[in-house]
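Person: At home tonight, work slowly through the protein below, taking as long as you need, and write a paragraph about the fold.
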Amino acid sequence: MTQPQRVTDGTGWEASAGYSRAARAGCCIAVSGTTDTGPDGTAAHPGDTHAQAGAALRRAVAAAEALGAGPDQVLRTRLLLAPGADWEGAARAHAEVLGAVAPANTTLFVAGLIGEGFLVEVELDACTGPAS
């Protein structure tokens, strides 16, 4: 069995928590929870759900692309929203980034996200294999 391929994007959480931004095994690609993290590790767009969701989705898609999946191969997304997040802004960003693909999606309000100012965290799954 071939070892999974992994990509990181250099955020401090990856090393300290022991995970990769994304991993690929065969045709399956899983992208870890992804936020709109600025260069200093804080929320790049505090208070703006739409901007955070769009940036996090683009970052998650880029991680999948680094492992060989195009946006059209995204199967599922999960949007985790912190209290106070604007679900409609998050949904609008999802439509802007992946509306043409229309992957399966789950959007949830959670008790909170790790890190000050984060309103949205995105997970993404893609498949590069042929349909069976």
